[in-house]
Amino acid sequence: MEETNREAVATAVQRVAGMLQRSDQLDKVEQYRRREARKKASVEARLKAAIQSQLDGVRTGLSQLHNALGDVKDIQNSLADVSKDWRQSINTIENLKDVKDAVVQHSQLASAVENLKNIFSVPEIVADTQVLIEQAELLEAHRKLMDLECSRDDLMYEQYRMDSKNTHDMNLIRNYFGQVQGLSDDLAKQLWMVLQRAMGTVRRDPTMLVSVVRIIEREEKIDRRMLDRKKQTGFIPPGRPKSWKEKMFEVLEGTVTTRIEGSQSVTREADKMWMVRLLEITRKYVLDDLIVVKNLMVQCFPPHYNTLDRFLKLYHNAVSMRVQELAAEDLEANEIVSLLTWVLNTYKSVEMMGHPELLTEYDINLMGPLLPQEVVEALLSKYVQTFTSNITGWLRKALETDKKDWFKETEPEADQDGYYQTTLPAIVFQMFEQNLQVAAQIDETFKEKVLKLCLKQMNSFLIRYREEVIAYKEDHLKDRQLPQCYVQYMIAIINNCHTFKESISSLKRKYLKSMEQTQNDAAIEKTLNDVAKDGCQFLLDEVFLDLEQHLNELLTRKWLTGSHAVDTICVTVEDYFNDFAKIKKPFNTEMTSEAHRRVVVEYIKAVMQKRISFKNADERREGAERMIKEAEQFKFLFRKLTAGEETDRLCDAIAAIAEVFKLTDPSLLYLEVSTLVSKYPDIREEHIVALLAVRGDASRDMRQMIIETLNQNKPSSAGFIQPIFKDITVPTVTMTSMSSSMAATANKLLK
């Protein structure tokens, strides 16, 4: 207490010191004192009020505790009195057992009296009810049935309460009402019959369907009441619970399943389009039925049944089972496509489950797939296998048909631009187009897969195509008179390669999202180029077989004295190329360039074969002038064939060689040969030796000096565009030919 007083004094001193820190504050001391006095009085008043409130609460609590103690004592006394009275009344309760039995008996008798009318008229009510069931008066029949069941159940319940072990009396009641269960079964059959025909009934007589639903709802309520009483008493009447609501949904499910399964009216043996017809009938049935359910049947069932959702699930499950059965059959390729197209596209489209009249009631995307993914994959795999086998056979037949056309005596058809062609590309790509259109009905991924498969088969087909073209050429070489239109059909084959390329590009643009090159694309491109190149080569071979005799006359004594070989060569080449004009670009251009190169090479080969050796300057001059003239003839010819394109360089090689022969001063021969080598770096040593041999006046030392000097100053061939001498070989002199030559020389000397 003293410590508290000291703390209070210290606090007061500190507070007063804070108020009187300046001299001018001394004038306000009285004001400060009054303010502090008011505060003190206010605090004391609040303390007194708080203490008084606490004291009042304590006083009230003590009063309530005192009252509670009195109440407890009163209750204790009352319980003692109750206990005393209960002990005294035990004997009285035992004496009232007879009264209790009498009450139970009275209850049974009251129930019997209440049902007395029904008990005596059971046979009559049973007969009436049977007639009502047969007349389809279902509501009235059910009312009478409920009366009978109620009488039976009440009597059995009272008997059960009185003596649950008395089976004799229970069986007596059950046997007396034995026909009631039969009536219940007959009524149930009528209900199930109406439900099985629900789609027709709801159109014709919806009140009948409403009556059936009302009856089932009544039975459901009775089932629930009987089950609740069983929990309390352990008694449940015979035949309960009936569970007619559950049975109703089973019947509706069976009805939907039967309707879906019964839609197949044709078989594969009777109609090749059986699958399409079956799926279309199923689509129509399902759509029509669901629209009927939404517009009519929903009104016949209570809202909590969710009738439309329930029927949607029933139809979905039934259709799913049906299509899985179909998928398990041994389907053909077109049947697989029809089934998958229907399952993956048609089913959820506006033509069926996505119909505008149904979409407002449910979300189509919440429905699961009709076929499991593994079944879809298995069907697609089977289709691919069948398609691969079929397309291989189709391509083989198409090629066989085209091969037969190659041996016809009439020319192939020409397109609108006059280019020869056969029907093979059109047949092949029409086949591809049809299958791709079918595959596109399934989905984009499968369509691309089928296209890649087509391209893969196309590559294998083109390899066989090339083999057949080579065999065609081999057959022709056995007898060049046959086939009569060999050249024209070979032109058509070359043009087909161009058509194949265009058709492949068209298919890829139409059916592929990406135009990226694949391994098959590169292989197809290469094979088509090889076929076209082979065809061009075979045609040129045909040309040069006709030119062989005239090419052999070049650079011979006959040629020097006045041969018309080059005239004939030019006429023959021009004649052939009138036909070759029906080859499409770029093959036509490439073929013309190759013919030009080959003519020049054959001409230079004739020089290198040393068929002639000029004896004097006049012969060299005459031969050189003839070569220059013939080079001009070739230039004129190939300018004409190439529509004025530059063709001089190849023919200039002939003129350059002619300049070597034309030179009259042997001392300048090295310079002329150097000029030739600088223009054509691919010329080799043996070529120069052959040229000097044909010239005829170059000594051994001169030849050696020219070759050694050229070897030391050989120009680089890097960057050389079109080699000419690369493929020209110079024949070597064998010992046999040398001996023959020496013998001939000896004979001349002897003569």
From TrEMBL:
It comes from Esox lucius (Northern pike). The exocyst complex is composed of EXOC1, EXOC2, EXOC3, EXOC4, EXOC5, EXOC6, EXOC7 and EXOC8. Interacts with EXOC3L1. Interacts with BIRC6/bruce. Interacts with MYRIP. Interacts with SLC6A9. Keywords: Acetylation, Cell projection, Cytoplasm, Exocytosis, Golgi apparatus, Protein transport, Transport. This is Exocyst complex component 3. It is found in: Cell projection, Growth cone; Cytoplasm, Perinuclear region; Golgi apparatus; Midbody. Coiled coil: none annotated. The keyword Transport applies. Its main location: other.
